[in-house]
Amino acid sequence: MKILVTGAAGFIGFHLCKKLIEQHHEVVGLDNVNDYYDIELKYARLKELGVLKNKAEQFNSLSESESLKGFSFVRMHLEDRKNLFKLFEEQQFDVVCNLAAQAGVRYSLENPNAYIDSNVVGFLNILECCRHNKIKHLLYASSSSVYGENDKTPFSVTDNVDHPISLYAATKKSNELMAYTYSHLFNIPTTGLRFFTVYGPWGRPDMALFLFTKAISQGESIKVFNRGKMSRDFTYIDDIIHGIEIVLKNPPNIAENSKKTAPYRLSNIGNGSPESLGDFIKAIETSLGKEAEKEYLPMQPGDVSRTWADVSKLEQMGYKSSVNIEKGVQKFVEWYRDFYKTNG
């Protein structure tokens, strides 16, 4: 297939591009390479995909990009409606994986406009491009954050999610509503995946695993929010990519939707087994061979105390999470030490 992956310089997008290239798909990666976190890490991911930094800084359209092993890259904002439409018309994609978004719950309190621009306006542009270019399947990233402070566990896609507690979560919920509308009106098969705390090599520097590993390696204290009384459905990146592969091969149809009006699907994608924050920190300490100095703090605004994914719907399609936190954390630490050339 010819597949567009937005957010190609991001954590999940990078890994997905690598897997799709290995499977001999023709892949076009799109990213604006913004500076929300360390831009050099994004360039390093692109280099792994065969894109040199000096070229990545110059990209305005696909014609100026380089191609390696079935991969091409274009630097573009999703908000750039004119050029996005041009890209779709020129390339005639079969499938779109929209992983590009302004990420981060806490940052949404500081820069709300970035979330509306990328996650709402940008997503609308993606939907419009899919509508006018006969895309066979749109897969897009939602988030476990849409569940907010839901008490019922595990979190199910049938749960009410009308009370988001961060703007980031609200934009992801809006994506789900917008996708349903376009599926209903224009018969576009859409799948929204609610990601649960993805971690692993090449991960984001603003996530707990990266922050904790860096701090412990440098002999600094780590900030443990809600005084450690938290649990997460930590999901290793290889399991996430495996789940995306399954979904790509099985686009939704009207018959499977409960309302029978649209080829629309929502699925959780997680480990299906939450771990306490304390156990997660212990796995990091074990992998590093160092004990963390902990600074216990209250809960942060917009955060939640626990997440737990009901992945039964995805399991019915053949998904199975197979990497536990001990193994996954060890793999991240090995990557971190190699990438940053540290023995800490």
What keywords describe this structure?
344 residues, alpha/beta, Rossmann fold, 8-stranded mixed sheet, two-stranded parallel sheet, 11 helices, 39% helix, globular
CATH architecture term:
3-Layer(aba) Sandwich
Mean pLDDT: 92
- The CATH class is Alpha Beta
The fraction of residues assigned to DSSP E strands is 15-25%
Distance between the termini: 43 Å
Main structural class: alpha/beta
* Fraction of residues in helix: 25-40%
From the alpha carbons, calculate the radius of gyration and give it in angstroms. Answer: 19 Å
Q: How many domains in all?
A: 1
Number of strands: 14
Query: What kind of sheet is the major sheet?
Result: 8 strands, mixed
Domain NAD-dependent epimerase/dehydratase: 3-254
InterPro entries: Epimerase_deHydtase, NAD(P)-bd_dom_sf
Organism: Mangrovimonas yunxiaonensis
Keywords: NAD
Structural account:
With 344 residues, this protein is an alpha/beta fold. It has one domain (2-196, 236-271, 308-322): Rossmann fold (3-Layer(aba) Sandwich). Helices cover 39% and strands 16% of the residues. The protein contains eleven helices and 14 strands. The protein has helices at residues 11-22, 39-48, 53-56, 81-91, 112-132, 167-186, 208-217, 237-249, 277-288, 312-315, 325-340; strands at 2-6, 26-31, 67-68, 71-75, 95-98, 137-143, 190-195, 198-199, 222-224, 231-232, 235-236, 264-269, 275-276, 294-296. An eight-stranded mixed beta sheet has the order 3-4-2-1-5-6-7-12, with helices on both faces. Helix 1 (11-22) packs across helix 8 (237-249). The longest helix is centred in the middle third of the chain and has 21 residues, at 112-132. It is globular, with a radius of gyration of 19 Å. 47% of the residues are buried. Residues 3-254 form the NAD-dependent epimerase/dehydratase domain. Keywords: NAD. It holds the Pfam family Epimerase. InterPro entries: Epimerase_deHydtase, NAD(P)-bd_dom_sf. This is Capsule biosynthesis protein CapI.
